[in-house]
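During the second half of the funding period, the structural biology subgroup turned its attention to how the target accommodates small molecules. The most pressing case was manganese (II) ion, which had performed well in the primary screen but for which no bound structure existed. We therefore specified the complex as follows and requested a full 3D prediction, including the ligand pose.
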Amino acid sequence: MKLPEYLSRELLKRYGIPFGEGKVVTSKEEAVEVAKEVGLPVVIKAQVLVGGRGKAGGVKLAYSIDEVREKADTILGMSIKGITVKKVLVARAIDIAKETYIGVVLDRARQSITVMASDEGGVDIEEVAREKPEKIYKTTIDMGLFELMPYQARQLAFKVFGEPELRKQATRIYLNLFRAFKENDATLVEINPLAVDTAGKIYACDAKVIIDDNGLYRRQELMREPEEDEVKEWEAKKYGLSYIKLDGNIGCVVNGAGLAMATMDIIKRYGGEPANFLDIGGSSSPEKVMKAMELLLEDRNVKAIWFNIFGGITRCDDVAKGIVETLSKMRVDVPIVVRLTGTNEDKALKILESANLITVRSMKEGAMKVIELAGRTK
Ligand code: GDP
Ligand code: MN
């Protein structure tokens, strides 16, 4: 789960990371209030969960109260990569002399955690990695210790900064940042830019934190409201469903992430476009099937649905009953193709056939049938 900047900074402040004082607001009047409180100039920043806000015009400096009002007004309501800005952070602007980068990332390739620092901050770090890889300094965490050792932090700080005083500040910040990563089940903690101001003090001017979804059950205090485009996926999660909306017109209901991927692949292989990824998981109670259907049918693009279920521990007849029960309670205007295979498939087939559902035996047959039906449905 990505945290927006204002929550990331709240979290990192608790670990002693220095930020210019600020608050998140939803109107230009409130923006003016905050500016009066923290003092001019301020930086006004769109709070959306997408990168590159600066380039998109979502980060602006304001030197007077009139400018605060005007720029807050411009940014609020602005659309950045399709997301409407509803909140802005107003913070005392740092008088930046130099921009650097620091990030703690879960590094799957190294099966470890990598701490990355660079003296080329502020810009897109992927670009630096591509064009000047020698400008990114890395250290790998010994996962037996699961600590950023002070010497490692110092080595990084020595590469990024020249002055002893800055190296000292940076070392402390790097160590604290690592602690924030470790203690909150994060997969990413990043500050870009980590800036030096004209008085020689280091400040974080941005913050990005991603919490590992698998750790969220014990990080409830970090839970935030879903964004517009996350509402459905989050709702699905409550019912034990993994749902991701896609752009096609074939709704898929599948158990197991591997089978879900294979189902999407074969639909594409035969020229169709899946409308979603949906894994209903191991046990397939009628409630789950019902919820899955609700999710699919809310998507106006869905023109046909394919149930592709492998019965291992899950019994096919239970799923079949779930489907039939759902159809008796819900109006479904799109055709449904069902492939149930595995435990109790014969019983399942009888239930489905008596309910006049379209059944198929193989993946290929299922894909071809559902693509044909989706093409026919208006
Ligand atoms: P991003 O584009 O989403 O990464 O947004 P950032 O918060 O990193 O802001 C983009 C750029 O705006 C930074 O690289 C800085 O150059 C500039 N910026 C952000 N905060 C401040 C600030 O407090 N003072 C000054 N002078 N510039 C800032
Ligand atoms: Mn940034």
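Two results from this model are relevant to the next phase. The mean pLDDT is 94. The domain at 228-376 is CATH 3.40.50.261 (Rossmann fold).
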